[in-house]
Amino acid sequence: MNRYLMILAACAIPLAAHHSFEAEYDFNKSMKITGVITKMEWMNPHAHFYVDVKGADGKVINWNMELGAIPVLLKQGWRKDSLKKGDTVTVEGYLPKDGTRAMGNARRVLLPDGRQVFGGTSANVADGK
Amino acid sequence: MQRSYRNLVLTAAAAATVLLLAGGQGSAQEATKQKQIVPPGAAPPKPLGPRGPSGPVPRTSDGKPDFSGLWNSQRNLPGQEEPAMLPWAAALTKERTANYSADDPEARCIPGGVPRAFPYHHQIVQTSKLMLVLFEGNIHTFRQIFLDRTEHPKNVGPLWYGDSIAKWEGDTLVVDSVGFNDQFWFDMAGHPHSTELHVIERYHRRDFGNLEIEVTVIDPKTYSKPWVMKREATLETEIEMTEYVCNENNSDALHLVGK
ipTM for the complex? Predict the structure, then answer.
C-alpha cells in the first residue's frame, strides 16, 4: 500500500457519478468478502479490482469489484498500483440488482493494517460518504 | 402485499446483516442511512464545497476577464426553484427518477449536452475569437463557443452541444446556444427538452478562483416558463486534467436494470 491511500479515509468530497447507484446496485444487499487481489483494472468509467475469495468448501471464486471513475479516484489519492496483486483485503459493498454473481460495488476497502479506504463509487455518493 | 412483505423481510435481513458484519454504533447508523436513500435527482443539492482560491480576476490583453483554467464541476446552488414542467415532461421526469435513472444516456457514455453539470473537471481555453470547453468526462470531448459571431447559422443542428455564440455584457460573458437534439438529459433526475431548446448562460468570474454561472433554459414545448439555475465552479490549481475515455470499459451498461 502506498502513502496516497492514507488520506483516503479522511476524504469527504461529495462525488457525482457516471451512473446512478441504484440503477445497478441494491442498498439492501450488502456484501463483505475477504480475499487476495488478482488484478486491478485501471480504466474508465469505473476502475475495477478482482479478488480471489476461498469459500468454506475450499472453492475459490473471483469477485469483480467496482470503484469510482479514475478522475475521482485520483483526486482521492488512489493510484493504479494502490491495490497490488497479492494484497489481502476485506471489501464491504453492495450486490447488483440483476443477480450477477461474484460482482459488487466497493463501498469500503479494509487494508491488512486496519486502515479503511473508500471506493470513490456512487455508493459513497448516495450515502453521503 | 405479498411482495411488500417479502421486501420488508429482505430489508430487515439486510439491515441485520449489516449490523452483524460491521458491529457497534457505526453499523446502526448505516442501517438508518439505508432507509433514507432517495432516487437520484430527488435529493436536494449538497452544500457547496470550499471556495476556490482568492485573488484578482485574470484578464486578456484586451481587458476582458479570462476564464481560462481548470475548473471543478459546476454545482447547482442549494435552495433553487423547481422547473415549471408541462405535464408530459413532469410525467417523464417522474418515471425516469423512479427508475433510478437506469436509462440515463450519460451512463452509456453518450454526451450530456448543455447545460448538464458534469461531475468531472472541465478546462476552459479562451482566445479573442473562440472559447473552448474541454470536458474531462463524461466523454472526453469539447464544446465550442464563438466570440466572433453574432448570429446562429440557419438550419443548424441537431447537435449535442448546440451552436454557441457569445457577447460581453461588462465583465459577464453571455453565451447563447440553439440547435440541439432532444436526446440528452439535463441531469440524473431526467429533466427532458425538445429540439426548440434555447440555453442562455451568463459566465462571471467573481475572483481568481470562483466562477458563477447563471443558466436559463427556454423551451416552451417542455417548460411553461424559463428555468433559471444558479451554479458555481471553483478553480483547480493542484492538479491537471486527466483522460477519461468512457467507452473503454463501460461494463456497467449491461447491469443497469433500474427498479
Answer: 0.78
